[in-house]
Fold each of these.
Amino acid sequence: MKQRITTSMLASASCMAVAAALQFAITAPASANQKLVELSKSNENWIMPGRDYSSQNYSPMTQINVENVKKLRTAWSFSTGLLHGHEGTPLVVDGLMYVHTSFPNNTFALDLNDPGHIIWQHKPKQDPAARSVACCDLVNRGLAYWPGDGKTPALIIKTQLDGHLVALNAKTGEEFWKVENGDIKVGQTLTQAPYVIKDLALVGSSGAELGVRGHTTAYNVKTGEQVWRVYATGPDSEVGIGDDFNKANPHYGQKGLGTGTWEGDAWKIGGGTNWGWYAYDPETNLFHYGSGNPAPWNETMRPGDNKWTMTIWGRDADTGQAKFGYQKTPHDEWDYAGVNVMILSEQKDKAGKMRKLLTHPDRNGIVYTLDRENGDLVSANKLDDTVNWVKQVDLKSGLPVRDPEYSTYMDHKGKEICPSAMGYHNQGHDSYDPTKELFYLGINHICMDWEPFMLPYRAGQFFVGATLWMYPGPKGDRQNYLGLGQIKAYNAISGEYKWEKMERFSVWGGTLATAGNLVFYGTLDGFIKARNSDTGELLWKHKLPSGVIGHPMTFEHKGTQYVAIMYGVGGWPGVGLVFDLQDPTAGLGAVGAFKNLQNYTQMGGGVQVFSLDGKNPYDDVNVGEWTGKS
Amino acid sequence: MTLKKIYKKWACVALTGASMLGATIATANAQQVFRNTITGEELKILEVAPKEGRDTPAVKSFLETGINPYIGVKGCLPRGEEAYLVACSGCHGHLGEGKVGPGLNDNYWTYPKNTTDKGLFETIFGGAQGMMGPHGGDLQLDEVLALIAWIRNLNIGEAKDAEWLTDAQKASFKPFNAKEWDGSGKAEAAKEQCTIPAN
């Protein structure tokens, strides 16, 4: 299939544009980007998965706080009607909540004044064959919002598993444009939340487990036309590497490495997809994200550093060109896909110098902090003292100092490697409280045995080449497969953890911090919890219908602060939940670590919204009543 | 489904370029109804399956009877193995031992109907939950029959619970032995034809 922008869509789009132009004429802003920045400052909005461009997931609201959080009760809830993993968090803009779902990636707009009424719903018809090329369950991580510019209406941008990027009219849900970003026949899928910068809709790619060569693409948000595309591997011109790349840190590597660190043409099927979270700094005009694992997982099949997989990027938003790239795990041997969240902060370094920073809890068990203007490494610390493949990261060279005992290679079964391929941190969207200078990190505590095998590349087929056995880390209970997670408060300058707590299962979905001295997060077994963000003390929890793999958000509506979270267990930790417990093979491989999850939760997706004493629009019993024919 | 709809569907099949032969097969085997393993909806086999590999004697016979004539036919195993390695092994493991998908080489089935040829065909063709997507569009029908024969051949369970085997087949059943297969079994099988046995 080619890019599909049908004329009928454009025609209806322009009709819509006229209508919208009338609406927006009153408040026409200088630029869409400024408008987005303005919107993100309001407590009544949550316009991107990380709240604003810094991706801090931090709300200044205090109505719900350590004193009264015990009184949080359900305000209302919404079932998406779907099974499988619901990652990410809903958006709230202009009195509407936008809810995304697992495959088939339905989208719902709910009215916050009467959330029992679905304003519109978008239910795409996708080729179900997309399911067989999904890496790990049928998740989706959320939506992007573009505020409109007076000519083009406000848009909700979404991804479909079948590789399409779609723009919907935010008010009506009608498809505005739709483009094919990748082809499922070669294993290219999409699970990411798209990202809007200025008038561009950015999107990464999925499918490194099928040998997909990763890319990041910007589309004109008004038309769906491609503006630029950069790859993780290959010639510099395609990776977006120019003369000043890594100028401040030439030892990170500069030219010719996207092909030179691979054998032959292996970079063409070398992975490096990115499906995690983006962050953006309007002042530097750089956006940041991590490229993922090289393909296949079997390292023997791809000698070399495999650049630029596993890389933290700083790229120019207008052109995609890279200013810096720092490869965290050269020549990965463990599937430590480097796609995790990038959280931006401004902090004084150890020398007392104010710096623009980027903090990234990586799959490989290291939490990195970089100067986001030039890529300088500021700190790199273990997410837990049980990380063992690496002794430390040499801040001068940027290289991990490996412990060869935990290497993986052909004809060898690596044992007790920590973290497991799931990482001590996976896709969870974490938070940062700037007043405390603390990052709240949801952690996996899982280790593994790993045995590689050789396999041929076949387009559209799994290209992994390793068998894995996963189990709780040393601090967990290996007999009962429990103690698989942690939650921690981390200071990126001192490198210290202010507090940390164990959890029964991974804290897979991430955290939300608020000025109410609180940190909220969901657990795989289906609780939403609130802790004192200073001390880690557990203050409140509530059992949800299903396990959580997304992150909470908070918004104000009509003077009431609400906390919302998506539930719907699945994702990589939940792939085993489709198995039936009697099956003797249900404990194998990736499924093994979570074999006990079935005893705590089952699938089923939705959103649950909380407020103090459960205050909600239906406290006025007349709201939402049918009052007869009008 | 109403008669009118069915009529429409066949007409549509014929019009969209399936051979007239395709349409005749369809009407001739109206007695076998294939259903999606999860939803129970009727599978539109001739609308979905690739054109090639549809009108082999084995496919015709299978669509009429629901019995896979390739079971136990040695000459079909290399073809079945190839299809399996390409389309299934990534999730179900090299030997069907199970990974993100459940094991296929034991006698435990999430969906009991997978003990029959017809049931297993329906699961492969129409898919099941989650990542078990439908494979009806990407595998030729004749290939699916060879694939089913290979999955049965991978079995390491007890013959007595292998409901898909006839009594005669049970008596001569040997659990799959990868070493033997890679050593000599495969080369021997490759010399034989993949056809319906004469008797």
Amino acid sequence: MALLEVEDLRVTLPTARGPAAALRGVSFSLEAGEALGLVGESGSGKSLTALALLGLLPEGAAVGGHIRFAGRDLLALPERELCRLRGNRIAMIFQEPMTALNPLQTIGRQIAEPLRLHRALSRSAAADEAIRLLGRVGLKPAAGRARAYPHQLSGGQRQRAMIAMALACAPDLLVADEPTTALDVTVARQSLDLMAALAAESGMALLLISHDLGIIAETTRRMLVMYGGQVVESGPTAAVFAALAHPYTRGLFAARPRLDGMPGRLPTIPGSVPDLADLPPGCPFAGRCALAIAACTAAEPPAVDIGPGHQARCIRLDQQPPAGDPVAGGPA
Amino acid sequence: MTPNAPNVLDDAPNAPDARIPPEPAAGEPAVPVLRAEGLVRHFALARTRLWRPAPRLRAVDGVSLAIAAGESLGVVGESGSGKSTLARLVMALETPSAGEVEILGRNVHRLGRTALRRWRRHFQMVFQDPYGSLDPRQPVRRIVAEPLQALGETARAARDEAVAEVLLSVGLRPGDMAKYPHEFSGGQRQRIAIARALITRPALIVADEPVSALDVSVQAQVLNLMQDLRQRFHLAYLFISHDLAVVRYVSDRVAVMYRGRIVEMAPTEALYRAPAHPYALALLRRPAAAGPAMGDAELSDDMPGQAGCAYAARCPFAQARCRLEAPGLRDLGQGRQAACHFAEQIIAEGAETAHRLAEKRDRTAGPPESG
Ligand SMILES: Nc1ncnc2c1ncn2[C@@H]1O[C@H](COP(=O)(O)OP(=O)(O)OP(=O)(O)O)[C@@H](O)[C@H]1O
Ligand SMILES: Nc1ncnc2c1ncn2[C@@H]1O[C@H](COP(=O)(O)OP(=O)(O)OP(=O)(O)O)[C@@H](O)[C@H]1O
Ligand code: SF4
Ligand code: SF4
Ligand SMILES: [Mg+2]
Ligand SMILES: [Mg+2]
């Protein structure tokens, strides 16, 4: 049995213009020791998916479906038990480090606290372990940095402090929401290597949300692509990179700025994401898709098998240009 | 200037009207939008030993630069190299330990509170973290209009109109005005932050990692948008990013920072074709070859006199001279500056030599000879 099984997860949020269907039937599973990548349009529901796993959805959210973690349905657990799982067996690196860090406590203290709580370390052992972790994410001199308050750190340093904090208790599942956005390539790689090493050592599972396709390619074996609250493509990372089956996936890959690219305008996907409170029927990408036909808006496209463990939600997959299209490019 | 210079210019009766950027008289050279001279910012760190003075960290250590109207300067550098501190100094959100900042010819660190508030219409900022910088209790209408309100422009209908227009120009809907920040995803929030920066039609936007929180397709939209806005409004940018690919799209020139200093500044195409500083070369040619991050610009109390080049420990070209003599930022012609004794050779034969030396060093782990 998988460590984590998410089945038909649905989240509806109250907004000024009525309920917004933010997640609409998200399903995936994650084995111990596995790294799963999650990419997708800004506003497609990546962070909400992560927050749902930790029971931290915004107030007023209505949740449906199942989230089974180590055999228990998290959506049915009382808050007290969820709280015990959080920070101990499930840890999260939040997209916004500043709101997740306590501005009034030193970094060292914030890392040491859960160690004392969940792993029953003595005060000094916890402090030493905190310094060791800070060193491993490249915050040096670690002893000095442990005494810093969050506002005394740069953006990237804060992000690394968050990574150290999340890894402190050796969780079974790490949900990392854009953990390296503020980091340059070398430091990002160093932090991801640390997560990968822990996954290998302790069997930690990793759900990695990132808009950096290079990082997804290097870190994960399987990935999901989200759009409009749905998983529109899922499969082995190499297969998704090679096939770029879904039209949105293709647009996403074409848009990335490249070091060797010609300066000028970047290709983008025309239009903008649909309003979740007022979703048109059918395929959520239809309003921006060059291949859209009437049938696309008639009914929600089902997930179609296109290879081993590889699926996409599109009714015109046969219309895709062949793989190896020059604008796309593969894993680095 | 001294950090706490008296506010002699505070609302001086003959101060120029804060709304109108000074027009250069015909024949005179234009006043740069931004001029920074010898900027330094130190921070005292927590004491690690009782009997020693608190160590000091030189977050920004002598940075000078200028940006002309409509020009875009990119700033790259590793985490902790001082980029955000530089941005905050330029924005007068932090006081320099030394040096000065002029925006359209006025030293912003000497302006009094009211004068500075009015002068801010000419320079606005987009922050790295769109979460911390948007007040969660305010609707978008008020967040975006805030810089106008600070200028005392309060007619609501006119304000709403301006907000609607600027929201459209960043790809949001006027209907988003009534929403609160938590109703938006990270990428959407960054657009709100850009809209807020644009609403006063500033001459300069300081953007600290404005697209690093965005997925690539939205990143591309925002970068294109920033380019369009720049042309439409003749905006100048100080554009900070750790991502070299991103900087390339929006910069006329690029400054590379390392440990609080500019180690190279060059026209974008020249830099990407053949960098002059080994750190820039490492970032560009083989990201992994920039080496493991060395922690940050930390300095202990006994290090100010530290001799030699700050990059020597990681530099594949380092020679005896580099450890004795610190290279200053030198003019290399064609608008290029670099702080390296061997900048000319590195431009000429950079990539080849660097690969060879890096490989040799990987094998021997010793300091290689330079080519
Ligand atoms: N508290 C909330 N109330 C109402 N709507 C919300 C709330 N939180 C998120 N949303 C909406 O839900 C959708 C999904 O948001 P989410 O934060 O999961 O996006 P994301 O995929 O993480 O995007 P990004 O890449 O920009 O971080 C967005 O359209 C957002 O506007
Ligand atoms: N208020 C402060 N007190 C003490 N140290 C500080 C303070 N603000 C910044 N620093 C230190 O100054 C150095 C430069 O920080 P800065 O935020 O400018 O880096 P950066 O280049 O923006 O890095 P990043 O890419 O991670 O955002 C860092 O080592 C940081 O820890
Ligand atoms: S179902 Fe239709 S609109 Fe949706 S992605 Fe496929 S072709 Fe485009
Ligand atoms: S001065 Fe010497 S050590 Fe410094 S960057 Fe140049 S070659 Fe390397
Ligand atoms: Mg998110
Ligand atoms: Mg920064």
